[in-house]
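Narrative progress, year one. The postdoctoral researcher (J.K.) led the effort to move from monomer predictions toward full complexes, under supervision of the PI. The following entry was the first complex the group processed end to end, covering 344 residues in total.
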Amino acid sequence: MKRTELGTLGEFGLIDHLTKGKNTQNPSTIKGIGDDAAVIKTGDKMTLISTDLLVEGIHFDMMYTPLKHLGYKAIVVNLSDIYAMNGTPKQVTVSLAISNRFSVEALEELYEGMYTACKVYGVDLVGGDTTSSLTGLVISVTAIGEAGEDQIVYRNTAKEGDLICASGDMGGAYLGLQILEREKQVYMANPDMQPQIEDKNHLVHRLLKPEARKDIIEQFAKAGFKPTAMIDVSDGLASDLMHICHQSNLGAFVEEANVPIHEQTYMTAIDFRIDPITCALSGGEDYELLFTVDPKNLDQVKYMNDVYIMGEMVAKEDGIQLHTKQGKRHDIIAQGWNHFKKEE
Ligand code: ADP
Ligand code: MG
């Protein structure tokens, strides 16, 4: 039998390969695979559903991930996908595969973090499943949300000329990870060394305890408009912008000078000899919202708190490009997180 390696398809290629050509059967299934959350019609309202999986050793390292933070993050990353549809999360289910390395007290910590996130975001933990694992901790969370039918924002509905906007702070989580990995190496070489992360608090926080941008969705409602397309930045700004571009059949033009980058991100990137814009474009796990706005709403979006206008959607033929601070144009390439790296 023929054997094809996963790496030849890449993560998105694999999902596409396995599900392409399969139609949904129920009229209530409004949106299946392909967006931040599935959309299901339930009476007058729409139900939104999104699932994420966190695997020890792949998504988190127990050496520097406090369980309370991990629990908080596991909930937040799922809520982020519901907000990315302009919806409101209401419930979550939590499934665990646990190795016997973990004690009851350790799992109490994990749940304390989960329940804290539930309280902060106003959602209920309503069920799940528990089993054992031979290799480590696996956490699967499903978030369920709701939205009015004409409130929902998809990835494939951006229009040429729309403004490209993002909520603040790109690339911080990626550098947080680099810092913790560096300190882990130092610690393993010499366990007496104390970690040096005081001036990197913001970055470490971005990685270990991210927040979902509930506040941005609330600002849309208050300002009385909605974006034309939206996605949350989990794989990296470049990769997630490409999802909007490909699905909307458009190109994009982004001004480097307008990409929101925190001062600590900027300084630390230089320390690591990485271009800060590379961190902002390719670092993942920011959980910010990336969205496009009809220019007729410029006056509303301009005054939104912590929202930055970075560029404009253009015709597909014009490509997906970055206009650098030096006045040059570069193609934006997605180096985002990809679980089964495609060999170029
Ligand atoms: P996000 O980054 O927003 O969480 P993903 O990139 O994980 O979204 O997934 C993109 C789309 O593919 C979503 O609609 C998701 O439900 C779907 N998907 C992911 N994995 C699978 C799978 N194994 N089978 C079917 N659909 C999947
Ligand atoms: Mg998403």
